[in-house]
Amino acid sequence: MVSPNLIKKGQSFLTVNPNAKKLFQLIYGKKQKAETAFDDETPKIHVSHIVSQLSFLYEKIRNAVDYDDDHLLRKNAIKRIIKRQIFIEGALVDYDSEEIAMKLLTELIQAGYLPNDKIPEIKIKEVASLLEKYIMLRHRYKKIHPANLDMKEKESHERSLVMNWIITLAATEIEENLNRDDVKRLVVSNIFEILSRTIKMPNDLPYQKDLDIQIYLSIARNFLKLDLDMQSFVAFKYYNNWEEATGEDIKRIAADLNAIHALVEKQLKHPLIKQIDKIVRRYSLYYSLLTEVIEENPSKVYDNATSNTKAFLNLIKEKCEKKYSKVKSRLWRSGLRSIIYIFLTKSIFVLLLEIPAIKFFGEKVNPLALIINISFPAILLFIIILFTKTPNKKNTEKIIEGIKEVTFIENQKFQPIYLRKDTRRNYLMNILFNLIYTTAFLLTVYLLIKLLHLFSFNWVSVTIFLFFLAFVSFFSFRIKRDVKQWIITESRETILSFIFDFFYMPIVAVGKWLSSNISRINVFIFVLDFIIETPFKVIVGIIEDWTKYLKEKKEDLS
Length: 558
Hints:
The chain is an all-alpha fold and 558 residues long. The chain is built from 21 helices and two strands.
């Protein structure tokens, strides 16, 4: 394989810009390193295969009832493990960061989030070093804001939020350490460089000082796919030199932590989010696709980019078509997982609550209503997925134009993108629109109730049906995100789509509200985290120690 540094063509149709060239070189170097890598003799963390199988099975069950994106599951597990050690096992009381780090990495390997016999033991000290800062921050904060009976409810709530936030920051930084990716870091830098130069703010918008952090947070959301927990860590680092923080720095941060937390929360709910996200989403897509094409064969792709533009663009086009096919398959997989999630956490209540509730209120049990309420979520999701549109040829053409812009000097755009001032409707107009929105929702519900009464639904069965309709409608929007992120062309609005949105969007909004509030009181999560997980982990630890003991005895006999 020839390095892109050494390729020199006499004739180039287009010139690769410096940032794109750095991306080619970094990916090429990474690929070369992977191909020549060898397994060194550094001691690795080992766990019992029997224990791993038990823990892996438990995590599968745990993740089935706590729906989240795959790339967030390990971070969630880290946060859960640290929380358990603080609130249940009390590990942080002794400030033994190395012991916590060892337990954390061991549990992650047992659960299948990290490979067995691949993580060097020195990683324990690395993670312990990260934890040490948060232990110190938490200790300092508790000293400055001690819990007492005289504390006002608002102050107590704020203290609790910040204490939990410290755990969130720790979990996020550990995940970042375990998943360090230099290619993604370079892409983040490239996108920021383009957009910080391109996005302009009108003088009448008072957010100039927030523009940089908003671009960074948008890249975190759209390119890195970080959740709110991880975005808060991005903002936290932006306002504090955390990586090089000394004891004095941590003391200062602890004193200002309430104000820092409030500032971070403000940035996560900023008025510019929707506008900037719309711009950043396009560039995130361009770079995601370009990076994947380069990773397949850096030398060949670079050769095409510098000497055969048509061949390079054909590679992009082929990758788009493969992606569209793959994303459709993933949509069906996500749909199946969503159906399992809904069944485990929600649909079971149809059997547990509907029949007893019907009998309690003196209503007649309708077998047809029961069957519809049990099967309806799965059927609705199936129909929604079946009619989900995938990106078209015009979308591919726009993506190719965008990749040319970020790759070649000749295609760079220097026209500024101006953000606009939010449209603020007057008080009466807001009341009118809210009234229309509410009327659409009530009319839809009324018509549905009338339809269900034709099937002899009683009011209990109607309530459960409407609940699942709202919940699944919102859920369908979540599982279609993978498809939507590849679509950058504006969809054409028709009369039919307008009518559909008019009546359906209020139901989706109710589903979002229900999902947000019900997730806070998920009984399955409570049972798993506080009743099952702790004793399960104790048993797993005993089995792990026993297998090590047997191994030692076997070695003594040999």
